[in-house]
Amino acid sequence: TTRTPGAEVHALSVRRGRIDALRRIDLTVAPGETLALMGRNGAGKSTLLSCLVGLIAPSTGSVTVGGVTPHRTAPADLVRRVGLVPQEPRDLLYADTVAEECTAADRDAGAEPGTCRALVSRLLPGITDDTHPRDLSEGQCLALALAVVLTARPPLLLLDEPTRGLDYAAKARLVTVLRGLAAEGHAIVLATHDVELAAEIAHRVVLLAEGDVIADGPTAQIVVSSPSFAPQVTKI
Ligand code: ATP
């Protein structure tokens, strides 16, 4: 089998109501590459992630993920190509215990029984089977949601604002996990306002402003040179 690219976006435009949420975006993400989508609220980051996972169809242009068009692909097929950890990881969790969550995740992903539990042991060491997801911290919820998403082994992983609400230790653990996944060959796209996170794990930064890509390049170059980051730097 040929190695499928992480994702390719070509001249993607999305209209949401009267707003151009995205305007002729071009973007590629390669296996093993971590890309940070940055830009202020409303810039179009979440819209782009929604397109990559097939929740929103392009108004014009194309999106290809692992060789398929996400919004035309059946969920059972798409789940093996791309996984999204949403802004509220709790939105993905619906079972009453960690064990049930894992059983459901295996079933939904068509994975061998025990696949999700093994991921949970790796990402959330020490958590017990009977823990109610309601009793998990933000960081633990994120780890459990990540395990659920990874159960189908999607080569492309999307995360929306993953460090929101995380304390320092949980953030450090996330950085380690994401670096490990990138080293295993996962393509990762994260929408984030967290410059520190981007600096630590992103190979590339794509800066969006009102639906346009205004910068796309190596992380160090974008974070240092972009005017959009200058106010944050001068305030410190
Ligand atoms: P944030 O950091 O707040 O998540 P974002 O960069 O992810 O912002 P988007 O959520 O993609 O930005 O929003 C892009 C544009 O689309 C904004 O102008 C927003 O108001 C608009 N928009 C977002 N969601 C909807 C929706 N459900 N219906 C109509 N317009 C929407």
Automatic annotation (TrEMBL):
Residues 1-8 have a biased composition (Low complexity). Keywords: ATP-binding, Cell membrane, Membrane, Nucleotide-binding, Repeat, Translocase, Transport. One of its GO terms (cellular component) is ATP-binding cassette (ABC) transporter complex. The keyword Repeat applies. Residues 7-235 form the ABC transporter domain. Probably part of an ABC transporter complex. Responsible for energy coupling to the transport system. It is found in: Cell membrane. Belongs to the ABC transporter superfamily. This is ABC transporter domain-containing protein. It comes from the Bacteria. It comes from Streptomyces yokosukanensis. One of its GO terms (molecular function) is ATP hydrolysis activity. The keyword Repeat applies.
